[in-house]
């Protein structure tokens, strides 16, 4: 029997686990993506306490801190979560079933795919979702980035270290990175921003050769490219929470209050899976810590009695 089962092994999940274990809760962390999406970030310079480090280094440090306490970790996928008649939670993986007094969803989100002709056929043949993973493969080649958020701009800045030309293709009137990254783009002559434009198709047979645009650029509605990187947001992993009865918003994000509580008692959520327009490692960890404290209060304010036979 665990006091808290954390579903998700990113920085949010391990941050919550560290805090909960420090409060003497018996904690398990279950996840299939160690470190979460922050590990795909090359440069983290906005996490308090660290002037600059990679996303992988940050994830490793937070996990190391959590495992300084007696936190149980399973690498695996949670396939089901349900509540028993005795008000305990069963958290089911491929190999094991966990019994928990409280549950935290720190499941993150997956990349939102660009649904245009040519995408599926050319995925991993010039269509990529990770500059940190694939940028070296495009050395001395021309590439594009679809998206205008800070994440998209950081992808472009990393690609500019390898590529002589990087196009940022964004449907909005103006890209919207953090100010420091906006200044970096302005200073980077290899990057060109194409605003108010959508990619409507990806061209190529065996490899990407270009994209179709819904606006002309330099007199043409096609743009020659050797690769295209997609950074248009994410879709939250909230299916299990929904099945449990947790309230979601129209985007599929879990709705929480300021203490990371959902509409279901003893069920909490934090990080990229929850409702909010500003999603960062620091905000996710903070939400996870709030959840850990609420779990601590719930466990200590309630009496629990478990029998092997359900009512």
Description:
- The relative contact order is 0.18.
- This protein has helices at 11-22, 55-66, 119-122, 131-134, 150-159, 179-187, 239-244, 281-301, and strands spanning 2-7, 27-31, 71-75, 78-83, 89-93, 97-105, 109-111, 127-128, 142-146, 165-169, 191-194, 199-204, 208-217, 220-224, 227-230, 234-236, 267-269.
- The chain is of the alpha/beta class and 311 residues long.
- The mean pLDDT is 95.
- The longest helix has 21 residues, at 281-301.
- It folds into 2 domains: 2-111 and 234-301, FAD/NAD(P)-binding domain (3-Layer(bba) Sandwich), CATH 3.50.50; 119-230, FAD/NAD(P)-binding domain (3-Layer(bba) Sandwich), CATH 3.50.50.
- The protein has 8 helices and 17 strands.
- It is 25% helix and 28% strand.
- Strands 1, 2, 3, 4, 5, 6 and 17 form a 7-stranded mixed sheet that branches. Strands 8-15-9-10-11 form a 5-stranded parallel sheet, covered by helices on one side. Strands 12-13-14 form a 3-stranded antiparallel sheet, with no helix packed on it.
């Amino acid at each position: 029997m665990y006091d808290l089962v954390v579903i998700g092994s990113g920085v949010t999940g391990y941050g919550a686990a560290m805090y909960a274990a420090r409060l003497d809760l018996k904690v398990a962390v279950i996840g299939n993506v160690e470190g979460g999406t922050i590990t795909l970030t090359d440069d983290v310079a906005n996490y308090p306490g660290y002037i600059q480090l990679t996303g992988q280094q940050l994830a490793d440090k937070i996990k190391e801190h959590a495992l300084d306490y007696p936190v149980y970790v399973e690498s695996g996928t949670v396939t089901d979560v349900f509540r028993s008649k005795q008000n305990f939670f069963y958290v089911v993986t491929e190999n094991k079933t966990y019994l928990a007094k409280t549950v935290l969803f720190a499941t993150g989100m997956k990349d939102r795919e660009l649904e245009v002709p040519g995408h599926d056929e050319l995925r991993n043949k010039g269509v990529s979702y990770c500059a940190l993973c694939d940028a070296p493969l495009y050395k001395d080649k021309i590439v594009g980035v679809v998206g205008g958020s800070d994440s998209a701009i950081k992808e472009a800045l990393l690609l500019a270290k390898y590529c002589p030309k990087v196009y940022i293709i964004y449907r909005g009137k103006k890209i919207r990175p953090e100010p420091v990254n906006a200044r970096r783009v302005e200073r980077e002559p290899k990057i060109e921003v194409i605003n108010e434009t959508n990619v409507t198709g990806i061209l190529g047979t065996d490899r990407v050769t270009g994209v179709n645009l819904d606006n002309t650029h330099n007199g043409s509605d096609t743009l020659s490219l050797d690769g295209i990187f997609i950074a248009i947001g994410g879709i939250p992993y909230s299916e299990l929470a929904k099945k449990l009865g947790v309230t979601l918003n129209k985007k599929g994000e879990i709705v929480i209050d300021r203490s990371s509580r959902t509409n279901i008692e003893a069920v909490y959520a934090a990080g990229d899976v929850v409702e909010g327009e500003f999603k960062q490692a620091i905000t996710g960890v903070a939400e996870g810590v709030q959840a850990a404290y609420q779990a601590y209060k719930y466990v200590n304010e309630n009496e629990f009695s478990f029998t092997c036979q359900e009512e």
